């Protein structure tokens, strides 16, 4: 009898079938695209959109290219956004809102991806990064900057700022990345009034790291160009009305920050905890100079920005402090230190980190609901205005020579006057509808009598 030795067979390890953070991020982006299609399908030109496509067109034709591109609007320098609108109009026309909206949505997604990159660079864990970026991607508290195409102004400044931070985040002498960052910064400073504050943020990060030459390259071109524009074209008649007060600015900033933290956490009860967590990260958490400079500047930057906005806007009331556009911009800047604050919960206990993730998860769900509901309301408002324009355009009385071409039809859309209706019809923006019902006839008569629709 013979015996053969048999080798012990070790079972092969089972493949890890758990989804990776990258896979989840791609899936979230796919879901977000579907949501963006849903909330964007009924959007149409509204409010400041008309200032870009109609009033600015009149300025270009009557006053020249300089006035078109450089005249301030509510204190904002907006040359790149105006060029974006003009280019889209030349390629696609005005018969669809989608090309304009897609440009803004693309910037929104780009801003989130840049926040993701900054989170990676300062050491935020992968899963926390996935969660906070999901929150930003579907941030219903800032819905205006997703579905209101003219917010390409704010979003261009934001994307330029975040891209500038990524480009200058390196050691060593001034190089091509710093020069590219300076060019990107010029786009940011000339897209909205947020630009100068963002430039100051980049400058502070570089000075903190003692990269003095890089700091000069980053902001001197912006400072020169912005100073030229400010003293040549800059004005803000609305901001000069009323008497600004320090108290009003402080209240405005406090309300804006409270609303933003409420949106980021989903509950007003957690807003204070989020603020405390960010303070701990900035002042007590050990980290490199490179990371701390980035985190501290991002944590502090919203305060002077909101104080400056409050200085100008608080005289008109504090309701606008919780405006979605301000919440959006503030949340985008605060999200990196906020993500680090969540990660610090693991120092207490693994379960504490899970609770932090759960809070953000609930905030995501509440923001998705808000994004859909607010977008639907916004679409309804533009649909009502469109119906009004079409009824007035289809009314025989509106074509009479006695009708004032400067007559405003919808108070919320003051840039659209009766004189623009033939242009809108010719370019396929609206289709005239003859008023038939008593309500429609009464609406048109009231408008022609000088009472615009609210």
Task: Describe the protein's architecture and organization.
It is built from 19 helices and no strands. It is an all-alpha fold and 454 residues long. It has one domain. It is globular, with a radius of gyration of 26 Å.
Features:
about 450 residues; mainly alpha; 19 helices; about 65% helix; globular; disordered N terminus
Give a topology summary.
Blueprint: H1 21-40, H2 48-62, H3 65-70, H4 79-92, H5 98-122, H6 126-137, H7 144-147, H8 152-168, H9 176-189, H10 195-208, H11 212-232, H12 246-265, H13 268-283, H14 289-300, H15 302-313, H16 324-343, H17 350-393, H18 421-426, H19 438-448
Helix pairs in contact: 1-6, 1-17, 5-6, 5-8, 5-16, 6-16, 6-17, 8-9, 8-10, 9-10, 9-11, 10-11, 10-14, 12-13, 12-15, 12-16, 13-14, 13-16, 14-16
